[in-house]
Design a protein that fits this description.
heterodimer; A: 965 residues; alpha+beta; Beta-Lactamase; five-stranded antiparallel beta sheet; 21 helices; 51% helix; elongated; B: 132 residues; alpha/beta; Transcription Regulator spoIIAA; 4 helices; 42% helix
């Protein structure tokens, strides 16, 4: 709530109402307190006025009080006698320790001797000693529990005396003897079991004295009497009224008290009493009674006294309360009411009435304090108003300065106006402000007119003065007696220097303090502005650098000879340089941007593999890829790319460089192709070489064989002719001898026997037969050699059926085969071929015979197996002859086709069969003859023959090496 | 020598460790009779050199078994260097007169060979039966 000068301030009314109301409430409270005090006093009593409070006697509680007293006394009597019994027990226990009582019992019964007497006296002396400490006891006696004879006594010597102990019984009890003495009897036994009894003569007067002294209700004037079994007084508190031996009341009155109640009775003098007769309720005191009484007049006096006291208390309380109320009203509340009026008037702005002067003590002090306070408040008010005015002006200046910073974008007018504002606010005749940033700055001066800018020397001078003299700027050369300067460091690179100048004593502390406060408030603005300027400079420089960097990168991107591209996370082209467009055969960038990169790749799988590597390792290096150009060409390229990833590892962009390596690939391709062709050529060359070597070998051996055959043939001819002539001549001679023997058997018989002509003639026949066989074999060998060496022209080529040739050859070889193996035929439908049938049959025969001989070498018990199968393979027919013989070791397969190579024993073969067969098949028919292992063991020979005899087609490609599998 | 315990097995394992993106395995085949090396992955510039060393060892082993087969059904990428490796092995196999086949060549590898014009040089088979 804004307040204006002169406006009153209403006092807030607190809860509780007006002061008068509070006064009334206070008065009522005081009265209530007084009444409460009265009640308390009535309960607890007021000894000063003799008021007993709740203990006051009334008609109603008088009897109860008497009964309570009686009960108390009864208890005391019981305790007292219990104590005496305990005493008896203690003394009885001490007796055996003093003197063994048994001899004394005997002595008392049988007669005392000197020893027993002494003991009895000693016992009695000890008991007397004990008795001296017991005020309640008059005497102690020890008697025989059975006979009653006295064995010890604290009074007279016991010898020969007896006492009646029969009344004691099994436990202690009490009686009044004939002499009126109260006796406590305690039975006990000696250590030897003798029955004894201890008699304690107690002082009833002590009992009564204790009863009377302890807890006696003196208010009611109670009297006590101890009555015997006959209701006569044994002892009493008032011997004059209740003499011993007399009845306390007339008998008829006593009889009314038999029930134990407290009743109103009259004594023998007719005085009314409140009395009661009660039994002691103590074991052993059954015959005794307690008589308690109080005079009715005494009770009534007590009642009256208490009533008067109560009334006095009430009156006193009431008077006290009224006095307090009056004092409160007069001393406290009236001055407070006056004080409140004064404060209300003061708060209302009016002249307050004087403080109450009739107040005393604290109220007076309060009134004086209020007077002083109000005076001070007036003074403070004046000071505050002056301060507010000054602060307001200062705030206006600071607001104006802050507005300058807010609205003035340019520094020059800002600082110029600022120094003018400062000068006016401080009352300076002249003000100077220098603003320096990163070494350079400007200075402005403000006097009576608008601010003007000073030269650069002023800035330097100001800085120099600031460094050397702190805030003293006397060296500026400004002709003013008084000046105040401040240097404000905005940051490590910017500062502001302010100087105000004036006449002598122009600047009091207030102006200087104002200047400091103003500069302090402007400091954050100045620093922020300076920092902003600096940051702007940095930004401008950074932008310049960025543009330069962008230009360099763009040049690199566009001028690169290789494709540089970027693609998004989905591998869609985002940018591509000119080299890339040229590589792909496009002119416009828009033809590629926005398309998946895989659309430019020959194999999409390659690009998918590329992308997998990018995702996994973030880059790919030297990745070969085939690109498709716009015109359908394939370009071999190599790519290096990297992925720009986000914080979670997801790809944001792919950046790649692709280089055309088609030339290199083409060069490599040519190289590989050349290598493979060379390898092919080498393989063919090796094969050809092997064939040529074999052929050369065969040709050489053939020539040798032809020579040998030729050389042998001639002498072999005339040997065979002569052998034939010789055989014929021998036959003639034998015929002549046989004729002569028939003519003269006797004479020739002896000659025949002497010459053993029979044997000779027989042997000569065998010799001629063997010779014939030898000649036959020699001629066969010569024939083979001739066959091996004969030329192609010697064999006639004609249509030939291979299957029929096999059948005819099997017929010829039957003798060689049938005893060693079974032959299985598996012929296929074959076309007729052009071949020298006889030679082919020769080959078949050779292979079949070899198979049979191989099987026969194993010498097994069952027949072997030879399988012959035929078939076609393209433009050739083939025949396979396999056996289940021992087979041919791999190391021999290269040699078996060599001439004269044989594994048979010497004389069992010439070793020419396979070489002749090879020559027939491979050389003469341009087929192929190979050998390998037959399934299940054995050897398997296979030969192929072209359907059409090559004839003039003499090429090495048709001949296979014998080593080919 | 058993294929499972020979040096070739070790070489295959070392290759797979060195080039975890490409796994090699081997087995004996019955048609054609020989050994088959199965390539699962890529043959690129980085691993072609080591692959050629492995195949050279396989070539020696295959002499005892009959033929060397490369199963390329799971070859997902082959570079020119990889093609060069295959041609080198082909040349070596010719020199040793050992049959060498490419089995179940993948579409990608086939296309590379086609582009390079090398398809006719390599004997291709569609499948090779592993020996029981």
């Amino acid at each position: 709530m804004r307040r204006t000068k002169g406006e009153t301030i209403p006092l807030r009314r607190r809860r509780g109402g007006s002061l008068s109301l509070r006064v009334a409430l206070t008065a009522a409270s005081i009265i209530i307190l007084c009444n409460a005090a009265t009640i308390v006093v009535q309960y607890r009593g007021f000894p000063l006025l003799g008021y007993r409070g709740r203990s006051a006697v009334t008609r109603g509680n008088a009897i109860a009080r008497i009964e309570a007293s009686a009960e108390t006394k009864r208890g005391q009597i019981g305790e007292w006698f219990a104590m005496q019994i305990d005493e008896a027990k203690t003394i009885a226990g001490a007796v055996p320790n003093i003197v063994p009582p048994d001899p004394l019992v005997l002595a008392a019964r049988a007669g005392w001797d000197r020893s027993s007497r002494a003991k009895a006296l000693r016992l009695g002396s000890e008991l007397s000693t004990i008795l001296r400490n017991k005020e309640d006891l008059a005497a102690v006696r020890v008697v025989d529990g059975i006979t009653g004879r006295i064995i010890a006594d604290t009074g007279e010597p016991p010898f020969g005396k007896a006492d009646d102990a029969s009344w004691i019984g099994p436990s202690a009890n009490v009686r009044i003897d004939e002499e009126g003495r109260c006796v406590v009897g305690y039975p006990f036994k000696s250590p030897d079991g003798a029955a004894l009894a201890l008699l304690l003569y107690v002082r009833l007067d002590h009992l009564f004295a204790q009863i009377r002294a302890d807890k006696m209700d003196g208010i009611l004037g109670l009297d006590l009497a101890f009555l015997g079994a006959d209701s006569r007084v044994i002892t009493s508190s008032d011997a004059a009224r209740f003499p011993p031996g007399a009845l306390p009341l007339p008998l008829h009155e006593l009889e009314t008290l038999e029930g134990g109640k407290i009743l109103e009775v009259a004594d023998s003098r007719g005085e009314k009493l409140l009395a009661g007769m009660l039994d002691t309720k103590s074991p052993g005191l059954a015959d005794f009674k307690l008589f308690i009484s109080a005079k009715v007049s005494t009770v009534e006096k007590a009642i009256l006294a208490d009533r008067r006291a109560a009334l006095a208390v009430v009156i006193a309380a009431t008077l006290a309360g009224l006095l307090l109320v009056w004092l409160s009203m007069h001393r406290l509340f009236r001055p407070l009411v006056q004080l409140e009026r004064s404060l209300t008037a003061f708060a209302g702005g009016s002249s307050p009435p004087p403080m109450p002067r009739n107040a005393r003590g604290d109220i007076a002090m309060l009134a004086d304090a209020m007077d002083g306070m109000m005076g001070k408040v007036r003074d403070w008010r004046r000071e505050l108003e002056a301060e507010v005015a000054a602060r307001t002006e200062e705030l206006r200046v600071r607001s104006a300065a802050a507005l300058l910073f807010a609205h003035q974008a340019e520094d020059e007018p800002l600082y110029g106006e600022l120094i003018g504002l400062i000068s006016r606010a401080t009352g300076a005749d002249l003000g100077v402000l220098a603003w320096i940033s990163e070494g350079s700055g400007r200075a402005f001066m403000s006097a009576s007119g608008p601010p003007v800018e000073l030269g650069g020397g002023a800035v330097a001078a100001l800085r120099e003065s600031a460094k050397s003299q702190g805030n003293r700027f006397a060296a500026l050369g400004l002709d003013f007696p008084d000046h105040v300067g401040r240097r404000i460091e905005l940051s490590g690179y910017a500062e502001i220097i302010v100087v105000i100048c004036g006449g002598e004593g122009s600047f009091a502390e207030a102006e200087i303090a104002f200047l400091d406060r103003l500069l302090g408030e402007l400091f954050p603005l100045m620093r922020s502005r300076s920092e902003r300027r600096r940051q702007e400079g940095i930004r401008i420089e950074a932008e310049r650098e960025l543009r330069h960097s962008e230009e360099r990168l763009r040049t690199f991107f566009e001028e690169s000879r290789d494709m540089i591209y970027t693609a998004n996370a989905d591998d869609v082209v985002a940018s591509m340089n000119s080299a890339g467009l040229g590589l792909l055969g496009y002119r416009d960038r828009f033809e590629v941007v926005g398309r998946p990169f895989s659309s430019f790749v020959l194999n999409h799988e390659d690009r998918a593999h590329f992308l997998d590597k990018m995702r996994n390792q973030g880059f790919v290096s030297d990745y070969e890829i085939i690109l498709k150009t716009a015109d359908g060409r394939n370009v071999f390229c190599i790519e290096t790319a990297q992925a720009v990833k986000d914080r979670n590892g997801g790809i944001l962009e792919i950046q790649g460089i692709i280089k055309d390596i088609s030339e290199r690939i083409e060069a490599e391709r040519e190289l590989w192709k050349t290598n493979m062709e060379l390898a092919e050529a080498n393989a063919r060359l090796r094969e050809t070489q092997m064939i040529m070597v074999q052929q050369e070998k065969l040709a050489s051996i053939g020539q040798l064989a032809a020579g040998v055959a030729h050389e042998i043939n001639n002498p072999l001819g005339f040997l065979k002719s002569n052998h034939g002539m010789l055989a014929r001549y021998f036959a003639t001679v034998r015929s002549a001898w046989e004729e002569a023997a028939s003519a003269d058997p006797a004479a020739l018989e002896s000659i025949a026997q002497r010459a053993d002509l029979e044997y000779v003639f027989r042997e000569i026949g065998s010799i001629f037969a063997e010779s014939d066989e030898g000649f036959r074999r020699i001629m066969e060998i010569v024939g083979n050699l001739k066959s091996f060496a004969r030329t192609e022209a010697e064999a006639a080529v004609a249509p030939y059926d291979l299957n029929k040739g096999i059948e005819s050859t099997l017929a010829v070889a039957r003798n060689e085969v049938k005893y060693v193996a079974e032959v299985e035929l598996d012929p296929a439908a074959l076309p007729q071929i052009e071949a020298a049938g006889g030679e082919i049959n020769q080959v078949l025969l050779n292979l079949l015979v070899n198979a049979a001989q191989a099987i026969a070498e194993r010498k097994r018990g069952s027949l072997g197996r030879i399988k012959v199968e035929t078939g076609t393979a393209g433009d050739r027919v083939y025949c396979v002859i396999s056996d289940d013989g021992p087979g041919i070791p791999p190391e021999l397969r290269l040699k078996i086709f060599d001439p004269f190579f044989t594994t048979k024993e010497p004389g069992k073969g010439t070793g020419l069969g396979l070489s002749i067969s090879y020559d027939i098949v491979a050389n003469k028919h341009k087929g192929r003859l190979t050998v390998d292992d037959a399934p299940g063991g054995g050897a398997r020979f296979r030969f192929e023959l072209p359907v059409r005899h090559p004839g003039s087609e003499s090429t090495a490609q048709g001949s296979a090496s014998p080593k080919d599998p | 020598m058993s294929l499972d315990s020979g040096p070739l097995k070790i070489e295959l394992s070392e290759f797979s460790i060195k080039h975890p993106d490409t796994r090699l395995s081997m087995a004996e085949t019955s048609s054609p009779p020989g050994i088959v090396i199965k390539v699962d992955g890529a043959l690129d510039t980085q691993n072609s050199g080591d692959f050629q060393v492995v195949l050279a060892g396989a070539l020696e082993i295959a002499k005892e078994y009959g033929a060397l087969v490369l199963d390329l059904s799971r070859l997902n990428y082959i570079s020119s260097t990889g093609v060069g490796t295959l041609t080198n092995i082909l040349v070596e196999s010719r020199r040793h007169q050992l049959p060498f086949f490419l089995c179940a060549i993948s579409v990608q590898a086939r296309s590379i060979l086609d582009v390079l014009g090398f398809t006719s040089f390599f004997p291709l088979i569609d499948e090779c039966g592993e020996a029981p």
